[in-house]
Structure formats: C-alpha cells, structure tokens
Amino acid sequence: MTHKTRNILFITLFILFLIIAPVTVFYSLGWRFNWETKKIVQTGVIYFKIWPKNVQVYLNGEFKKKTDIFFSSAHIDNLLPGQYEIEIKKDGYYDWKKTLEIKKREVTEGRNIILIPKNPNFNLLSEQIKDFFFSPDGKKAILKQEENEIWSLKLFDLNRNVKSQLINETNISKEEIEIMDLKFSPDSKDILLKLGLKENIYYYILETDSSPAKLTKIDFLDSVDQIYFHPADSQRLFISQKTTLNEVDLVNKEIFPPLLKDIAAFSISGNNIYYIDDSGVIIKTDLSGEKKEKLNILPFDLKKETKYEISILASQIFIKESEALYIFDENQKSFKKFFEPIKDLKLSPDFRKIVYFNDYEIYVLFLEKQYDQPTKEAGEQLFITRFSEKINDIFWYTDYYLIFNLGDKIKVAEIDERDKINIYDLAEFKDPKIFFSDKKLYILSEENLYVSEDLTP
User: Fold this and answer.
1) pLDDT single digits (tens) 251-265
2) Most C-beta atoms within 10 A of its C-beta, which of 4, 25, 214, 385?
3) Residue 189 DSSP label
C-alpha cells in the first residue's frame, strides 16, 4: 500500500469516526430522528409488570415483547414521544387495552396490571345453602342450611375444604326461631347469635373450636342496640342500651355499671372505643373508658330520632347519618359531608384506599400518596363508574382492582383511570351473593355455594 493510499484510508476512517461517534453517543442517550416531525427528539420508555406470566405486549397493533418468566415484566425502550395504543394479551384472558402517552426521557409505567380470566372454573361446594358468613381471618365460613323448614349452621374450613355440623334449630327451640344477626369474635373462634322467637330476642355464644360445638345462652342479657366482642377477651362483650355503654362478663354472667353515658353511637377499633356523646362531640378512649380524647372542636349536629354509625378505616373516621356519610377533617377538627347516598365503604388490603359506593356509583378515596402511576395525592377521590342497574356488593379484588355484582353479572374493574377504566364480565349467576377472600370468589346462587379457582397472584 502506497503512502498516499494509507493517508486517504486514514482520513476516510477519521471522517467516519467523527460522524459515527456522535451518532452512537446520541443514540445511546436516547436521541432519535422523528421522520414525521423531521426533528431529532429524545425517546421514552414503557415498563409493565403483569399477572399472569408469559403475556404478549403490542404497541399500535404490532407485537413487541413477551413478559419474562421470572418477574412477569416487560421493558420497551427507544420509543418516540407520542400516543401509543397498548394491548396486553394472553389466551383465555381478556385483553388489557389503553392509549398511553410516551414522553421524552420518562418512563410510562403499569406496575399493577392483572389480566382477568374469561371463563374461570367454579366448583360446587354445597347445596341447600340459604346464607353464608365469613370469619374475620377469612379461613372459615358459617353456612346456613335449611332442610324440611329447619335451619342448621355448619362450619366450613376453607383451607381443608371440610364441612362440619355446628347446631340446628331444634338444639335451641322446638318452635320456629329466626337468626337475626351473626357476628364472629375478633379471633374468629366464637360466634354471637342474635335470635328472634315471636316477639322475644335471645343471645347465644357458639364456640366453633369446641368438639362438638358449645352453645351457651346469655340468659341474663335483654335486647340491646349494639353489641361487640371485647377485642382482647372473647369472654366479654360491649353492649349499648339506649344511651349507655356497658361491659359484660360472660363467665360470671354480670353486666357492669355503665362504662360510658349519654352516647349516640359507638364503635371499637383495635384497643380503642370511639363514640359520639349527646352534645355531638366525638371522643376516643381506651377500653377502660378512662383516657378520653376529644377529636372535634365543632360539635357534630345530631338530629333527633336518627340512627348514627361510626366507622374507623385505617386513618379515617366516618359517621353515617341515615344515608349521608361524613368524614373527619383532621385539619379543621370537624366533620364534613363526604358522600350521599351511601350504601357501604370498604378498606383495601394495603390499607391505603377506600372504596365507597351507592346503588349506582363507585368511587375510591386515596388515604396516602400513591407513587405508582397514575400518581395520586392523599385525600384524592376517583370516580370509577356509574351503572343503570343496582350494585349489590363490592370487594377489593387486589389493591388496584374491584370485584362486584350487578344484577346477575359479576364484574371486575381496575382503578387506573388513564385513557379509560377497563371493566370486565367475570361470570354470571342468577341473583348471586358474593364474597372474595384469599384469591377466590365465593358465590351463593339458587341455594348453591360455588368457589372459583385462584383468580389473582
């Protein structure tokens, strides 16, 4: 090779280096040429975490990636800024669809995506079931069964899939007696039964862990307005009679002198009692009723002949007045009307959100700042949807999805409102009563009790 040729080759390679090196650096920093706008722009990234595994991710109708086996996530980079139609697919599941914006130098996320099965399997657990009651720990259920116009209560162990007899109507009375209420103790071991016989009310304690189950009549207790198990001692109760709150000793059959007086309503949360006195002051006290703390400066306006209920959900205090729901404003030290009409409200498994609803509308309240996209501030409210049919009941499917029944249909809705909220039809049963616990959906329909396969991670 001649000297001249070597010089030409060196200069050519040097020029190519000067051209390619900056392009390579720009490319590695996420710069791309947008042929539509004829401009050089920086790219963005999409990141998804999805259940189940091995799902397909499409952008604008084009297959891009499958989620990895171990973490069930997908990362797609070098995307030009703009709107992208995203589809996440897997056979046997509904597609997750959204149009999301990709911004330069930012990551657009979907960390809590759950695909909903199209035709989940349901197994028949039991027949001739009139009603069910699930324990606080979600490990057992009481099934009310009826045969020859005589009801019986059976204990169903959800972990072992075993059903055992507890009591039947004839164990209590030879006359027709009605179950008016059934409450579990906080430890899920005992049950408080409120029974009605003609015009009389009777209370019983049913010990489910005994073999056979032990039924004890509380023969010294007359009709009461509200009744709670003592959080620390299942052999004690708290009862309200008109305007007083009393503690009850079941072992010694004793009703102690009033613990609190002049109350309009009370509730127990943890080791604290919350109550409204007759002046409209909300007071927090310990279980002894001695250490009292007034919560509101401005009294709550109590109305005569009106029933009040107190609910304590995580960091929030609510008062229900007929169909109106009030929330405690910590800054103002007063209650303000929050929602009306209210049907029910429930805390999410992560204790950070509350779903509240009436017959036709569903909302979510964020108790803490949510950093996952879409980000939310503490106290922010989100409207989920409105229906023309009545909503029967709602449960948290996961921390980011809701499950509810609407007429004969059972639906699942996400709470990610970007672009649109995806709502899916999960199943259909005639006039179902539902309960969701430990990844499974329990359905009571036409006196048959069904359970689904695992529906969530």
Assistant:
1) 999 999 999 999 999
2) 385
3) S
- Which residues make Cβ contacts (< 8 Å) with residue 389, sequence separation at least 6? 360, 406, 407
**Which phi and psi (to 5°) does residue 372 adopt?**
-65, 145
Would you state the torsion angle of the CA atoms of residues 93, 125, 435, 393, taken in this order, to the nearest 10 degrees?
90
3-state helix, strand, coil in the chain (%, to 5): 5, 55, 40
Q: How far is Cα 291 from Cα 175, in angstroms, rounded to an integer?
A: 47
Q: Please give the order of strands across the beta sheet that includes 423-428.
A: 391-398, 401-406, 409-414, 423-428
Q: Which residue has 């503690």 as its token pair?
A: 247
- C-alpha distance from residue 317 to each of 43, 257, 292, 380 (Å): 46, 28, 16, 16
- CA–CA dist 175, 214 (Å, integer): 21
Contact by Cβ (8 Å): 404, 392: yes
CA dist., res. 176 & res. 173, Å (int): 7
**At 40, which helix (H) or strand (E)?**
strand 39-42
Other CB atoms within a 10 A radius of the CB of residue 401 amount to 21
| Segment 110-169, tens digit of pLDDT | 999 999 999 999 999 999 999 999 999 889 999 999 888 899 999 999 888 889 999 999
Comparing C-alpha atoms, which of 260, 216, 220 is closest to residue 238? 260
C-beta separation of 397 from 355 below 8 A: no
* Alpha-carbon distance values, 14 to 7, 22, 27, 158 (Å): 10, 13, 20, 74
Q: Which of 43, 171, 55 is nearest to 103 (CA)?
A: 43
Question: What pTM did the predictor assign?
Answer: 0.89
| CB-based contact 283:277 (threshold 8 Å) | yes
* Backbone region of residue 447 per phi and psi (left: phi > 0; alpha: psi in -120 to 50; beta: other values): left
For residue 429, the Cα-to-chain-centroid distance in whole angstroms is 22
